[in-house]
Amino acid sequence: KEGKEGTxxxxxxxxxxxxxKQEDEWKPYIPEIPSQALFGIYTxxxxxxxxxxxxxxxxxxxCQFSNxxxxxxxxxxxxxxxxxxxxxxxxxLAHGEDIPLTCILVKxxxxxxxxxxxxxxxxxxxxxxxxxxxxxxxxxxxxxHDSEYGSVTHLSMSFDNRFALSGGIDGNIxxxxxxxxxxxxxxxxxxxxxxxxxxxxxxxxxxxxIVDPQHYSIEEDKQKAEKDxxxxxxxxxxxxxxxxxxxxxxxxxxxxxxxEQLPLF
Length: 265
Hints:
It is found in: Cell projection, Cilium; Cytoplasm, Cytoskeleton. This protein is an alpha+beta fold. It contains 3 helices and 11 strands. It has a 4-stranded antiparallel sheet, with no helix packed on it. Strands 5-6-7-8 form a 4-stranded antiparallel sheet, with no helix packed on it. A 3-stranded antiparallel sheet has the order 9-10-11, with no helix packed on it. The chain has a domain of 165 residues.
């Protein structure tokens, strides 16, 4: 029994030493192709949020420059520090991989942070002073761009914070009506600046639906326009050919008249 216990103790010690050795030899995995940096935004002169793609996707990294004096000088030896990170919730069931944040628009006056995602969605987070983000779990979202090829690249907002725009790799631009609290903004609008008329306030009449069953549909109208163009080209070609034939006839008649005037031998 003592021998068995001794053997067990020795085996356990060897396993612990092996585990300790593996821990000592562990090195972080660095992909051969570095992950793409999608955007960065300052939270202070020395700290910033950084969003990464590919292997490093799925988190928003809060980083700090290792040396304040040479933070604008690139060096391969310099290693900046990751202070903290926030996981990016992935609610897109069609994509199993992590979905990174691709662009950002911070609006301090409306207390909102707009972000675009690689899967074409837009998210709006509450603005937290100094750190910008408090958490990535609470947000409003909407999908407009193509979920496969519509990675959002640009976000912008109108001067009065009533409208937002998003642009994506799919070539589309979408507009959104922002229904937020505008009191802060309205307090600093110059009185001489006329407000933008909202769509609900316009005096223009709304377009009427086409209900006549005999009326061309959009596709039929397009086909008719193409057919009319073909008919016009054909008629133009016929007219050109007739003019050419008439010119040949005139030339032939002139030759006959010249032949009749020639002397007989």
